[in-house]
Structures are given as C-alpha cells and as structure tokens.
Design a protein that fits this description.
heterodimer; A: alpha+beta; Alpha-Beta Plaits; 4-stranded mixed sheet; two-stranded antiparallel ribbon; 11 helices; 10 strands; 33% helix; B: mainly alpha; 51% helix
C-alpha cells in the first residue's frame, strides 16, 4: 500500500512538470508564428515584397490588365468602342434602369473608382473623363470566398475569376462581398433587352449574377479580350500575364506608375490604372 | 353473405371504374418519339448513338465542367470537322432544330431541362442576328 502511494506521487509530479514545461519547449523549437516577426528579426528595415501593400507574388499565370486612362482621354470614343465590343460579344442586355442594369465593363467617375484617393484639386482630365471599370480578377477574391456553391471560382491555370452560371443560385453574397461593385444581378429575363445575339455565347437567365470573365472563351481560341481588341494599336488596354517577367504588361508596369483600386483591402486586384 | 345482390355488382363497377384508364388507352402504346436526324446530313455523333441516347445529359455536364472549371477546352473532331465543346458550339451545329430533335423526347419523357433558358438555339440566335 505504502509503496504504491510512493509510485503514484512520483508519476504525478513528473507529469505536472512535463505539463508546465511543454509550452516553453514548443516555443523554443518552433519558428516565428507571424511572417512579420520573422522579417523583422532578419532585417529591421526589410523592403516589402513586390505588389500592393507588401503583396507577395503568386505563382503560375495570373492574367491582368493595365488601363491607360491618358489614351482614353486622347480619344473619348475609344471607351465606348471597348464597352460596345464587350456587350455584343457576351450578349449583355441593355437595361435602362440603375437597379436592373448589367455591367461587365462600364464607365464611372474618378471619385467612385478611387474613393480612397484624394479628390482635392484633381487634374482636369481625371475630373472630366469617365474611368473604365471592370472586374479586378483579384488574386485573393472575396467573392469566391463568399460563394456558397462555388459557382464563382479562381481558374488555377490563369488566375481568372470565372463563373459557372449553371451553379449560381442567385444568393448575391458575391455582390455583397465584392468591394468594387463588379457584379450584376439579373432581376428579370435579360433576353428581351439583348439587341443582337452572338451565337457563340449563351445569354443568362433571371436570377443569376454575372460579371466580366476576362473573355476566357476568346482566350481559349487564341484571341484577345474583346475590349482589348477594340483598343488595338492605341495601347489603352494592355492585357497579359502579371507573373511573366517578359510579358508586355510587365514592361508597362515596370515603366509606368500605376494604381490599383483600393489595394489596401488586400484583395490584390489584377487591374492597374495609369492616371 | 348479406346484400349479395348489391355488393357484388357494386364491386364490379368499382373495379371497372378504377381500372378505366387501362381499358381506355392501356393497350395502345403512345407513339415513341422520332427525333429528327441532323438536317445537314451528318451521320456520326461525338459518341455512338446508343451512348448518346442514355448519357447525353452526363456528357453535357462533363463538357460544362471541362470547359468552365478544368480548363480543358479541347476541340472535338468528328469526321474531320472540329467543334468547340458545348451545347451551342457542338450539338446544335448539327441538331439545329430544337423542336424537332430535343423536344420530341423531352416532351415524351416529361422532362424539362433548363438548357435553353440561357443557351441559344440557332433559330433564337438568328432572330437577333449579330453583325460583329
């Protein structure tokens, strides 16, 4: 009896010691929990990695676009041409009603496109000309996280944020999640509002959300996106792989100062603007 | 048995009434649908006829996932002609008449696929021709 109690006390004390000491041991042997701790330890004045707000570069192809607003100011008709090209290629209905309208690429004033930028004494060109706005095909897309059916998703091979209209249940979580207002909901049957059909693309039905798809169907055929093709020769829209150092878009990005829409949100937009 | 005279004729009338649909049209089988063959005269489909009859809906779903999700937009070649995967792009290039092809069986089987809520039949597409 006596011997057993002795053993019990020994085991209990060793266990208690191990329990108290374990967290300290784990902390000693593991690496820094936060990336920032690690960087700070290695180099107190570390430069943030490339991209907006220390955005780390993703790997693989990531399609993006540079929109040179100076070119659109030079030729005010160019933007209409780009928008019309998109509308006709994707069977987009023209609904003259702010609530029901469907927009893939559209015009918006500077203060709505870049609300976080100063609006105090902006240049005339910025103030007086509308900006071209489309889905930013974010590298960290909040819409994809919000979608309950995976109807919207990031295409692994090229980084496009695509939609599968078949799966969309019309819950509009993605519209609430998108900070750029890039998504439109079909409140009514869009077909009566489509002026001319493109037989190579479907229309949509009532109750689904839609948005720019970076012309995934045209890229598969080796064509450029419709809006980029409409601006051909002007350099107003440059399209390409942001992760390919040799691509034309990277040459533009390396040369020009560009801004992204509300990059501080951390969505990592793939559409860049030269103002 | 009490009231034999009324119960037995009543039972006979009841059974006849309940089985009346069989007597009226049970022995005349409804005419099976005859979907129209491609008006263009194409003889070969992407898969054998029997497979397509049973599994065209599965094939369409597979194609949808291939094209939209799996980045496999490879072309399908049938008798030297290439088609892009899709109801609009491939199937209806030959089976161009929805009413005489798709609808015949779908009506017979009482199924209502919602393909054409979005996808355009050649007739619908031609109704608002695009010029670009």
């Amino acid at each position: 009896m006596d011997k057993q109690r002795r053993n019990f006390l020994k085991i209990a004390s060793v266990t208690a010691l191990a329990g108290i000491g374990a967290p300290a041991l784990i902390r000693l042997s593991s690496t820094a929990a936060l990336a920032s701790e690690h960087v700070a330890a290695a180099n107190p004045v570390a430069k943030p990695s490339k991209g907006a707000h220390g955005e780390s570069a993703s790997t693989g192809m990531r399609l993006g676009m540079v929109i040179d607003m100076r070119k659109f100011v030079d030729d005010p008709k160019l933007l209409n041409k780009a928008i019309d090209a998109c509308n006709s290629v994707h069977n987009i209905p023209q609904i003259d009603n702010r609530k029901s309208e469907i927009k893939w690429i559209w015009k918006a004033p500077f203060e709505n496109v870049f609300p976080e930028q100063s609006q105090y004494h902006t240049a005339h060109n910025v103030e007086n000309y509308p900006f071209a706005v489309l889905c930013n095909h974010c590298d960290d897309p909040p819409c994809v996280r919000a979608c309950p059916t995976q109807a919207t998703f990031r295409v692994k091979g090229n980084g496009i944020i695509a939609m599968d209209f078949h799966r969309c249940i019309g819950c509009r979580f993605c519209m609430a999640a998108c900070p750029y207002g890039a998504r439109s909901f079909n409140w009514e049957d869009p077909r009566p509002y489509i002026k001319k059909y493109n037989p190579d693309f479907p229309s949509r039905m009532r109750g689904v959300v839609e948005k720019c798809n970076f012309c995934g169907e045209r890229l598969a055929l080796g064509q450029e996106p419709a809006c980029v093709e409409a601006c051909k020769g002007t350099g107003a829209m440059v399209f390409g792989d942001l992760n390919d150092a040799q691509s034309k878009i990277r040459q533009v990005l390396d040369k020009e100062f560009t801004i992204q829409r509300n990059a501080s949100l951390g969505t990592k937009p793939s559409v860049f603007y030269i103002v | 048995m009490y009231n034999k005279g009324t119960i037995i004729p009543g039972l006979v009338i009841f059974v006849l009434l309940v089985t009346s649909p069989i007597w009226f049209n049970g022995f005349k089988a409804a005419t099976p649908p005859k979907p129209e063959l491609p008006p263009g005269g194409e003889k070969k489909c992407v898969m054998p006829k029997e497979y397509m009859r049973d599994n065209h809906m599965k094939l369409l779903n597979d194609w949808r996932d291939n094209v939209l999700r799996d980045e496999e937009r490879v072309l399908v070649t049938v008798e030297g002609k290439t088609y892009r995967k899709g109801l609009q792009m491939a199937c209806m290039q030959c089976h161009s008449n929805k009413e005489k092809f798709c609808d015949t069986c779908h009506t017979y089987a009482d199924v209502n696929p919602y393909c054409w809520d979005c996808h355009l039949t050649p007739k619908e597409a031609a109704s608002k021709e695009d010029t670009h």
